[in-house]
Amino acid sequence: MNASSLVAETVWKDIESTRSVNEDQLSILHFLFGKNFERATRIVDQRGVRRIAGEPSGRSIFQVVGESQRKEEYFCFAEHYCACYSFFYDIVSRGEQLCCKHQLAARLAASVGACVDVKVSDEQLAILLSKL
Ligand SMILES: [Zn+2]
Predict the structure, then answer these.
(1) Can you spell out the DSSP letters for 6-47?
(2) C-alpha 1 – ligand 1 centre gap (Å)
(3) Can you give the residue ranges of every domain in the chain?
(4) Cα 78 to ligand 1 centre (Å)
């Protein structure tokens, strides 16, 4: 893991433990993620992050709305994957960013408890994952 990721990880853990974000944490996250963090906060403010959890396993995936007029929704794992174009282009291919705004929105919403929680059966979750 690189230094930026380690710093980000520490900040996320702090936020998760208090369920709130202070000014210092905001400025660190903004420094690390820039415009993508601003976009992510807007998505969270609009309640645009759904956490779809399978029962009984408790495994979950996030569904995050995009910001364009079309309001697409992207499935993502906060730490490892997003189905959006930016994830493949900016992160996987060019390695210029740590993660996309949807992943950030998912992480932020989960950390402060701002997700819309949706429960499905494990079977439904498996079907959903198989379509990624
Ligand atoms: Zn994304």
Answers:
(1) HHHHHHHHHHHHHTS--HHHHHHHHHHHTHHHHHHHHHHHTT
(2) 20
(3) 3-130
(4) 9
